[in-house]
Amino acid sequence: MNSNSQSANSTDASSHRLADIIGTVIGLLTLTLPLLVIANYSSVNIPNKQPSIIYNLKQK
Fold first, then answer.
1. For residues 28 and 42, what is the distance between their CA atoms, to the nearest angstrom?
2. Which residues make Cβ contacts (< 8 Å) with residue 56, sequence separation at least 6?
3. What is the pLDDT of residue 40?
4. pLDDT for residue 11
5. At 43, phi and psi to the nearest 5?
6. CA 13 to CA 46: how far, in whole Å?
7. Cα dist from 8 to 4, 13, 24, whole Å
8. What stretches of 1-60 show up as alpha helix (H) in DSSP?
9. What is the pLDDT of residue 13?
10. Which three-class secondary structure state does DSSP give residue 30?
11. What is the pLDDT along the chain (60 residues), one digit of tens a residue?
12. Environment class of residue 47 by beta-carbon count within 10 Å: exposed (0-12), middle (13-18) or buried (19+)?
């Protein structure tokens, strides 16, 4: 361990801070963007094409 070595510079600290902010933004986008896309496409009105069931009851 050298006694005359310096700790982190202010430029190193600011670049780490910027990397933390960018990483946080990427993480939030990764978590929220798929949910927003799924919510957007699942809310589209899909026509309900179920066959109607008709019972023919013979009367006597």
1. 21
2. none
3. 87
4. 66
5. -90, -5
6. 52
7. 13, 7, 22
8. 10-42
9. 78
10. helix
11. 555 655 555 567 788 999 999 999 999 999 999 999 998 888 666 666 667 777 777 766
12. exposed
pTM of the model: 0.50
Tokens representing residue 17 in the block: 């801070």
> Residue 25 has which token pair?
């933004």
The token duo for 48 is 């309900």
Question: Which structure tokens are listed for 6?
Answer: 């310096």
The one-letter amino acid code at 11 reads T
Token pair listed for 41: 């496409």
d(CA 10, CA 16) in angstroms, rounded, equals: 10
